[in-house]
UniProtKB/TrEMBL annotation:
InterPro entries: AAA+_ATPase, ABC1_TM_dom, ABC1_TM_sf, ABC_transporter-like_ATP-bd, ABC_transporter-like_CS, P-loop_NTPase, Type_1_exporter. The chain crosses the membrane at residues 41-62, 74-92, 164-192, 289-310. The lineage of its organism: Bacteria, Bacillati, Actinomycetota, Actinomycetes, Kitasatosporales. GO terms for biological process: oligopeptide export from mitochondrion. This is Multidrug ABC transporter ATP-binding protein.
Length: 611
């Protein structure tokens, strides 16, 4: 019995949730390891802002002093100073861009690796509840969507804020009255930008959810299995229509995200663009009425500074909108980072050096869900001495596969304990457990890589000779050697270049390389033809020799030689003994044997008739 696969979704947050300040602290904490570089960026930004406001004062001196008085030497020095400020400012900008982009990319790297590493520590239950496309979307789309914010926003924020402050100080120094006029509408602009930011944040959350849904659809329907299912069921056109609808919804969200608040932000830019004209108009009116309030040089320098104020102000407002939009992405990433680790390595793990391989189930209870009405396993008591074999049989849904999950800690027991050489598996280090227990599951997974790479996944440093030896033991070497590229042959998506029996033997060869003292075999021979089954069974027998072996049996003919056979019924061990003992008992096991006999005979007859 396994949990139903459903989409994992985070709980909705109520309005006024006090978490945003904490979220800001977490975002700032991402930059903490790079505070030295960020300090350098801050100094460069401050220096750039100071240099930028020098130029208008030089311009005022040119217009009010050098040109009217005909002082060509002073004029040349002032012009040279203006050119030098532009050059120095450009150098500062390049340096701060280089450092800030480097820091941003390191933060992106830290986020990606943190999310990936955290997901690697999640239990199998999380991945049975969550679509693969959803996970991929969080790592690729959400973190990728934060790139501009993380790499440039922090620098842009500091740079523009410094430029605004420096410009306001310089404007006040030129004329405080014109400065007051220039800043009257600034609070309104800030309010408008905050409204736009909240609107875009909401749309961004919807957009990322839609991207995740599309990623899941692509991952599921364009895999080899998805293509086979779609075509054989005649649903290819239907899948294409569904994808078209999802893409259409995403396109609408992209337009909404792009246009949200666009008119309001453009109104701000129009007003700011009109301000210099209003300043000239005000200065002209005062000149017509009497003595001008400022000189021509001061007026031109002030308008230049005003433009230097408006540009970073608009940029600051836009940055604020982008930051609020990115908060939605950060929130989605933090939701994954906040997932509790259900199966964690103990603070002081036990490391076994000489592993004998004795496995015990002591009063084991297990539920996939705390609210599950009936437990999947109840009071399981089993002892598997080192080097012996245990076969677990029973009806479908009796808990056989679940029992096998508990030894390698794919799930943790909810009652009792599972021990390896007398030590609770929950107290063992992950490294010890992975070296001690090898699993050949019913569902063989192969990476889209070469045969050699798939085998070396179990032992990265394995030599070519070791690969060949393991493949021979798994009865697959001759098949591999006959391929044009031999061990360099790509296996294809999920191993689709190989048959079911060949994939199963490749998985066995991979486990042989690992050489674990305890072996979990979720038998996969029931769906194979007789010849392939015999080859796979020979490989299984070779692999199991001398190891503690727990076999999840779906075909009873494969477990007659097991040292012990446990019969599960609704999660309870109802019979335990050897094949002969259980046959003589004439209970559940014997009934399963009698039911399997006519089915096997019918299958053999059908196979002979087909031949």
């Amino acid at each position: 019995m396994r949990p139903a696969a459903i989409d994992w979704t985070p709980p909705d947050r109520a309005e006024g949730d006090p978490r945003p300040p904490a979220q800001w602290r977490r975002i700032l904490a991402l930059f903490r390891p790079y505070r030295g570089r960020l300090t350098t960026v801050g100094l460069l930004v401050a220096a750039s802002a100071v240099v930028s406001v020098i130029s208008p004062f030089l311009l005022r001196a040119v217009l009010d002093t050098a040109i009217p008085q005909g002082r060509t030497g002073l004029l040349s020095l002032l012009v040279l100073g203006m050119i030098l400020t532009a050059v120095v400012n450009s150098i500062f900008n390049v340096l701060q861009t280089l450092i800030s982009t480097t820091v941003g990319q390191r933060v992106m790297h830290d986020l990606r690796t943190s999310v990936y590493g955290h997901l690697q520590r999640q239990s199998l239950a999380f991945f049975t509840r969550t679509r693969t496309g959803e996970v991929q979307s969080r790592i690729a789309n959400d973190i990728g969507g934060m790139q501009s914010t993380v790499t440039s926003t922090a620098t842009s924020l500091v740079s523009n804020l410094t430029a605004v402050i420096a410009s306001i100080v310089a404007m006040v120094a030129l004329d405080w009255r014109l400065t007051v006029v220039s800043l009257l509408l600034l609070p309104l602009f800030v309010w408008i930008s905050r409204r736009v930011g909240r609107e875009r944040k909401k749309i961004t959350t919807e957009r990322q959810k839609q991207l995740a849904a599309m990623s899941s659809a692509v991952q599921e329907s364009l895999s080899v299995s998805g293509i086979l299912l779609g075509r054989t069921m005649g649903r290819s056109d239907s899948l294409a229509r569904e994808f078209t609808e999802q893409s259409d919804q995403l396109a609408d969200l992209e337009v909404r995200a792009s246009m949200a608040g666009r008119w309001r932000m453009n109104t701000i830019m129009i007003v700011m663009a009109a301000m210099p004209a209003l300043i000239y108009w005000a200065a002209g009116l005062t000149s017509a009425a009497g003595a001008p309030i400022v000189s021509v040089g001061t007026l031109v320098a002030f308008v230049t500074l005003q433009q230097g104020l408006f540009r970073p102000t608009v940029s600051l407002l836009s940055t604020g909108v982008d930051v609020q939009t990115s908060l939605a992405l950060f929130q989605r990433i933090f939701e994954y980072l906040d997932l509790p680790v259900e199966i964690a390595e103990p603070p002081r793990p036990v490391g076994l050096t000489d592993i004998r391989g004795e496995v015990r189930f002591e009063a084991v209870d297990f539920r996939y869900d705390p609210e599950q009405e009936r437990p999947t396993l109840t009071g399981v008591e089993l002892k598997v001495p080192a080097g012996t074999s245990l076969a677990v049989v029973g009806e479908t849904g009796s808990g056989k596969t679940t029992l096998s999950y508990l030894v390698p800690r794919l799930y943790d027991v909810t009652g009792g304990r599972v021990t390896l050489d007398g030590v609770d598996v929950r107290e063992l280090s992950f490294d010890t457990l992975s070296r001690a227990v090898g699993v050949v599951s019913q569902e063989t997974y192969l990476f889209h890589a070469s045969v050699a790479d798939n085998l070396r996944f179990a032992k990265p440093g394995a030599s070519d000779a070791e690969l060949v030896e393991a493949a021979r033991a798994a009865q697959i070497h001759e098949t591999i050697a006959a391929l044009p590229d031999g061990y360099d042959t790509l296996v294809g998506e999920r191993g689709y270049r190989f048959s079911g029996g060949e994939k199963q033997r490749l998985a066995l060869a991979r486990t042989i390389l690992r050489n674990p003292p305890v072996l979990i075999l979720d038998e996969a021979t029931s769906a194979l033809d007789n010849r392939t089954e015999q080859a796979v069974q020979q490989a299984v027998d070779t692999l199991a020799a001398g190891r503690t072996t727990i076999t999840i049996a779906h075909r009873l003919s494969t477990v007659r030689s097991a040292d012990q056979i446990a019969v599960l019924d609704h999660g309870e061990v109802v019979e335990l003994g050897t094949h002969e003992e259980l046959v003589e008992l004439d209970g559940r096991y014997a009934a399963l044997l009698r039911r399997e006999a006519p089915e096997a005979a019918a299958l053999s007859a059908a196979a002979l008739g087909h031949a």
